[in-house]
TrEMBL record:
Predominant location: membrane
NCBIfam families, alphabetized: 2A51
Keyword line: Cell membrane, Membrane, Transmembrane, Transmembrane helix
Record-linked InterPro entries: Chr_Tranpt_l_chain (IPR014047), Chromate_transpt (IPR003370)
The keyword Nucleus is annotated on this UniProt entry: no
Recorded family membership: Belongs to the chromate ion transporter (CHR) (TC 2.A.51) family.
GO molecular function, one term: chromate transmembrane transporter activity
Organism name: Streptomyces himalayensis subsp. aureolus
Transmembrane feature ranges: 116-138, 144-166, 198-218, 250-270, 282-302, 323-345, 357-380, 392-415, 439-457, 464-482
Name of the protein this chain belongs to: Chromate efflux transporter
Pfam families (alphabetical): Chromate_transp
Coiled-coil stretches noted in the UniProt entry, renumbered to this chain: none
Amino acid sequence: MTCRPHGRRTPLVTAADHSPLPPPRTASPPIQAAGDGDLIPFRQAVKTWFKISLQTFGGPAGQIAVMQRTLVEEKRWIGQQRFNHALSYCMLLPGPEAQQLAIYIGWLLNGTRGGLAAGTLFVLPGVVALLALSALYVGFGTTAAVTGLFAGLAPAVVAIVAQAVWRVGRRSLTHPLLIGLAVASFAALALFRVTFPVVIVAAGAAGWLIARCAPGVFKPVAHGSGDDGPPPLISDDALHQERPSRRRTLRILLTGLLLWAVPVAAVAQFTGITSVFTTQGLYFSGAALVTFGGAYAVLAYVAQQAVQTYGWLSAGEIVHGLALAETTPGPLIMVVQFVAFLGAFRDPGTLDPWAAAFLGALLTTWVTFVPCFLFIFLGAPYIERLRGNRHVSAALTGITSAVVGVIANLALYFAEHTLFTTVDDHTLGPLHLAAPDLATFRPIALSIALVASVLIFRLRWSVLRTLGVCAALGLAAALAGVPGS
């Protein structure tokens, strides 16, 4: 018996098992639909987004790769070009681009409730995991067992991010000029410390210029050619669309601003405008608007204010918080939850310290991620209308190419700080070089990273399985007292 469509569209799967149709060996025509409703039964979509959320380790690189593998290659719910188009828009926004990409694709597949489900599930496991780890950190501090687990997880993430760079780059860099854009973006970030927004704007301008001077670079590639991924089962025209209008914009803007502001106003009313909760709510609301470039880019800004201005925690504790965020699923910007947890625990006001810590952490998480939904629901209909514009598409393709360089820069940063205890910054004219101190090399970390690389690249193990093995190796080395573990 077939599942009733939620709207006027025909669902992809049957109600018997809610399993996706097996991908055909030969190219099959995309499913066509029209009107509002779900292309994917909502329950099946929720299950898929929850499965994705449990694999989102390794920062934005790994998260984007997980979605690309699941949605483009395995499920075939969206094509590679459409995936890249959405990703390019998300890279222009402040906040965690991977979560915003999940919201965007969820909206394309299931409308507003699809975007809400995808975005919420994307961060939910990380919120729960980091709350638990923050409580353990405050209650028990660092122990040999915990240190060993982290010593195994971090090198595994290096291999996961390297795989992500390869996957995203292989699909996006289809021309030497696009490869050049990626290399230039990497050099600008890694060597010249150009700010992330400047790199993205320059890449968009370069894409537009290339389209004018060498239009053949952006000629569409036929689905199934090998460069554009497998053909999607849902045609681009069948994906969710909404006509942008002033009424719709005002409705979403008002709803989003109320959801964003009401919790902060309630906290200010009940705890006072000078309480740590009000301060954190207002501060991280502002930070959500300037977090271009991901967690690493915003970390210096957050560290300066949280340590020097507010005194919520020490510089060393922020590094510990980033390590915790890197070893839990979800966006790395979740580190702000750890910052708020410690700050509220140490300045609880009239509340119990533990209750204060959870309140501060959850409020900070709320004001950090609510804007992501607002940005996507407001902007996606306009971006969809511009999808057929050749110049806009070229600019977004240039941004997508730069994204590969951005992710590669994050991979280098993470590898340096995982394989070496100390990394020093050196300035040579306009160049800013990060030089690891060779005396602080960690051979155990390199060994575990190599094991993880073999498991992922050679044996094609899953992310979770690889992380489990590497965590066990790190724990064993720490408990055995191996130097450098």
